[in-house]
Amino acid sequence: MREKKSGQSETALTETGRCLADHILSTGPVTVAEYMERALGHYYATQNPFGVAGDFTTAPEISQMFGEMIGAWLADIWQKSGKVSAVQLIELGPGRGTLMADILRTARAWPDFHTALSVHLVETSPALRKKQAQALGAYAPVWHDRLEDVPAGFSFVVANEFFDALPVHQYVMQSGEKVERRIGFDNVAQRFFFTVEGDVTETSPVSLAVMDEICRKVSVHGGAALIIDYGYTEGAGDSLQAISRHRYADIFARIGEQDLTAHVDFCALRERAEQNNMTVQGPVTQGEFLNMLGIAQRAEMLCRKATLDQQKDIMLALRRLTAPSEMGTLFKVLAVMSKKV
Ligand code: SAH
């Protein structure tokens, strides 16, 4: 991985940065979680984060094969769970709607499954809701602000690069005591700074609350959830990072105009699901997951009908999604299932 940058920003404050600075100056330093929440709220509401011109590229934006594998995985569970006639397909943070579109196209191979599906999108950004409407309008999706708002029923929940956008709290041990790390603002130097330094541990209560809700949703009426993200299975320390134009950036720069994420603690999510009495599979690496579902064979099949240039693109995408040096190892997949399935 590249060195991540943190420290001081030389550039003028953004509007969100100014707002945050004023807030800190009047009420005191904020938690890392509050900093993330404020910066990201503005970011997703106003920026176009995806693709070459944006800040980052996600797996479904790399290749249709990603969504196809997930569609096949869901169809398999649907078959094993007695082919229920009404399935809520819920996506958390659907971005441009690409993953959902690929899943739905793949589901056509199982006509009864396809017919059973209703589409629910949990999305807070009005700008991204518009993009999702363009991609998925034909399926009459229903939007929700929170997972809690989705009606009860047999549900499949999919979350790709959603949990990394949820706020984390950071703690540092100081003289034998766990102290929460906060972010202050130096009005003379016009700079943000961390109130304490040291070995950092992170927790994300919001992520655990979302996991609780996922478990509640799929345990009452049946179903499953698939969580895919970059993350760790052993302590990772300080994982807060900013990404701008596909590069690591200063987390205190361009507040609200660049992406801010934390790695996902997959052990904590797994434990939480187990405490909720769910059947849990994984986390396994994204490479293992996609290979197990036959992504290499799918790539070969696509290549057969493709031009030489397209074949190159397909093989490159396969590599990006599965190679350990690319997304294959850093990204993990966790499956959570109701004991009824
Ligand atoms: N899953 C997509 C997009 C990932 S980016 C993909 O793989 O391409 C993160 C997405 O989560 C965006 O759609 C963002 O607007 C949404 N999001 C972030 N925080 C959210 C929250 N608290 N509630 C609902 N959606 C959120």
Overall description:
With 341 residues, the chain is α/β, with parallel strands linked by helices. Helix content is 40%, strand content 24%. The protein has helices at 15-27, 32-46, 59-62, 64-80, 98-107, 111-116, 126-136, 205-221, 266-275, 286-292, 295-304, 308-322; strands at 30-31, 87-92, 117-122, 142-144, 155-160, 169-174, 177-180, 182-186, 191-194, 200-203, 223-232, 241-244, 247-249, 259-261, 264-265, 279-285, 331-337. Strands 2, 3, 4, 5, 11, 15, 16 and 17 form an eight-stranded mixed sheet that branches. Strands 1-8-9 form a three-stranded antiparallel sheet. The mean pLDDT is 94. Bound molecules: S-adenosyl-L-homocysteine. S-adenosyl-L-homocysteine is lined by residues 44, 58, 60-61, 93-95, 99, 122-125, 128, 160-162, 165.
How are the secondary structure elements laid out?
Blueprint: H1 15-27, E1 30-31, H2 32-46, H3 59-62, H4 64-80, E2 87-92, H5 98-107, H6 111-116, E3 117-122, H7 126-136, E4 142-144, E5 155-160, E6 169-174, E7 177-180, E8 182-186, E9 191-194, E10 200-203, H8 205-221, E11 223-232, E12 241-244, E13 247-249, E14 259-261, E15 264-265, H9 266-275, E16 279-285, H10 286-292, H11 295-304, H12 308-322, E17 331-337
Bound molecules: S-adenosyl-L-homocysteine (SAH).
S-adenosyl-L-homocysteine binds at residues 44, 58, 60-61, 93-95, 99, 122-125, 128, 160-162, 165.
